[in-house]
Amino acid sequence: MSEKIAVLVAGSWGTALASVLAANNNDVSVWTRNEQQAAEINEKHTNEHYLPGSVLSERIMATTDMQVAVSGAKAVVIVAPSAAARQVARSLKAFFTKDMLIVHAIKGFETETLKRMSTVISEELEVAEGDIAVLSGPSHAEEVVRKCPTTVVVASSNEKAAQAAQELFMNSYFRVYTNRDLLGVELSGALKNIIALGAGMSDGLGFGDNAKAALLTRGLAEITRAGVEMGANPLTFSGLAGIGDLVVTATSRHSRNWRAGSLLGQGQKLDDVLESMGMVVEGIRTTKAAYAISQKLGVQMPITEVLYGVLFEGRDVRKAVEALMGRDPKTEMEVMPLQTWEQWHS
User: Fold this and answer.
1) Any known ligand binding at 141?
2) Is 280 annotated as a binding residue?
3) Is 285 labelled as part of a ligand binding site?
4) CATH architecture, domain 4-180
5) Among 4, 192, 269, 330, the one annotated catalytic
6) Which range has the worst mean pLDDT, 25-29, 293-297, 314-318?
7) Residue 168 contacts residue 103 (beta carbons within 8 Å)
8) CATH 3.40.50.720 residue ranges for the chain
9) How would CATH label the architecture of 188-337?
10) pLDDT one-digit tens code per residue, 204-238
11) At which positions is NAD(+) bound (predicted)?
């Protein structure tokens, strides 16, 4: 039996997830503020600005009316940019009902408050954060919309919510695992964008594969260190939401974060890069938030610190990388605090 599912908003990832839901015989209502975009989706079954060359299912209909999009929906999937997440959730509140499953697929922080997206959404909808499901993992929209084999994870403290989201999305080409560590999955999805920016810069500078391999490896250590300090399960960072998403975002030309980093490495200015791309590059906002978090918690995040200097303090890219390589000698393996190990293995 088909169900109505609402997707907010109609960017590349939102449209790709709408395509998965439509392939699963759901009627998908996509909300957008752009009337021309809504008309294009409804009349031409395309979304050329975000997914050029892709033909969308006729089961996907777009609207600029939030009430029309959400009313009667079994589930609402929020895929807005992190900067717009609070406003979108606030607009949703008037039409939201407690029986709706809330899934978000946003990878970032609210820069002003340093809050995760599930926290922002729970505050606006007045629902328990643990009842929200987050979808993350190695998944480029350009490949998902073409039905390339993809594997992701949905996380929630509420096992029923995670299983409901898994059932909603899973099919022959889109495999979905569940995870109870919502915190770790959210942190992985956000923080890996910083490392992807760094990987792009390394490639833009022509530093080669050795440098990028080192950056990804130490980047994962940095993400894990911060995540464990914030209370996440260390094993999450070796899974799909962690190393899986890190690898695909830091090595693929589909990645906006990698592309932005590459252009910066080639000497372009940040404003020019953002203007030429014409899409949100979440890693830039996330770098600002993660740097503030590292300072607040006293966690060492040297890659984040270097990128913050490049993005927001005008630091020279090449000199910043040289400074990173010239840090004091360290041991590679970090000892996990005993209480953290016991917490996740009890």
Assistant:
1) yes
2) yes
3) no
4) 3-Layer(aba) Sandwich (3.40)
5) 192
6) 314-318
7) yes
8) 4-180
9) Orthogonal Bundle (1.10)
10) 999 999 999 999 999 999 999 999 999 999 999 99
11) 141, 256
